[in-house]
Amino acid sequence: MSLLEKELSDVLEKVQNTKPLVHNMTNVVVTNFTANGLYALGASPVMAYAPEEVADMAKIAGALVLNIGTLSTPQVDAMILAGRSANAHGVPVLLDPVGAGATAFRTESALRILREVKVSLVRGNAAEIAHLVGESREIKGVDAGDTAGAESADLAVRAARALNTVVAITGREDVITDGLQCRIVSGGDALLTQVTGTGCLLTSVLGAFAAVERDLLLAGTSGLAFYGAAASRAAERTAAAGPGSFQIAFLDELAKLHPHSLKGHAAVREMQATGTGGWWVG
Ligand SMILES: Nc1ncnc2c1ncn2[C@@H]1O[C@H](COP(=O)(O)OP(=O)(O)O)[C@@H](O)[C@H]1O
Ligand SMILES: Cc1ncsc1CCOP(=O)(O)O
Ligand SMILES: [Mg+2]
User: Fold this and answer.
1) How many domains are contained in the chain?
2) Where does the secretion signal sit in this chain (predicted)?
3) Whose C-alpha lies nearest to ligand 2, atom 10?
4) Based on the number of CB atoms within 10 Å of its own CB, is 258 exposed (0-12), middle (13-18) or buried (19 or more)?
5) Tell me: the pLDDT tens digits for 101-150?
6) CB 91, CB 25: distance < 8 Å
7) Whole-prediction pTM value?
8) How far is the CA of 206 from the centre of ligand 1 (A)?
9) Minimum CA distance residue for ligand 1 atom 20
10) Any idea what the CATH number is for the domain that residue 79 is in?
């Protein structure tokens, strides 16, 4: 096991040992799947939305995950209350800008949250992240086109610098950066795109990893890699049967994760800046 793999595994073990509470303000499509996925991983989910209680819940959580998948203005107002409480109590805040770019309301709401709350990590697909930095890319509802990690590296770095947060762009390969260091995470399976909520659950899983590891680039890399490994293992067993069987097997594989699960199922590569504005994969 490489030094990086050891560091990634240590974060997984901290999640499994401490079972962090993750406060999710998420969308109506993925709520149950997100709670079950967090339980499978070994974390504790809670969903809480009422303006009367979100500040109290956020301050006792290990992480707060804001997801605008089925947003309304009162819900975004409540997310900001929760986010400010999390900020005041040192609780990391993660944002999933679901469908940013599909409508102006989604883009503007994500940007409002980023202005009014200190967000530590943003995870989205390439189209969503592009729209957060004013770049146009096709988005069909909540879905982006197929993207490879290396192709998204420049965008991720630009977004991390512009939004002052760690950015993870997911797709066929994932990329994660704090604006300086940049990593490509491969793994997963195309079946993930046929099950709704796999991006949303991933953001909440990254919340569990952020709850136990203050280095959010490390926490995020570990979360992406183990999530991809669980999906790859599930696909190996169920690809022939289809997305329904895969969804169940994926929850089972999240519950079975252990330090050696990455082997043969996920890989992390460091990208290096070329000095001329580009990147090459190390
Ligand atoms: N073609 C693909 N092959 C393998 N994994 C994929 C593919 N597309 C997406 N994923 C994985 O699916 C998960 C959700 O990512 P993504 O589909 O980009 O999110 P969203 O559902 O928010 O658009 C991530 O773990 C990502 O790596
Ligand atoms: C289908 C849909 N519509 C609004 S939110 C949502 C779920 C999106 O989940 P994910 O981004 O994880 O695919
Ligand atoms: Mg999504």
Assistant:
1) 1
2) none
3) 197
4) exposed
5) 999 999 999 999 999 999 999 999 999 999 999 998 888 989 887 776 67
6) no
7) 0.97
8) 14
9) 199
10) 3.40.1190.20
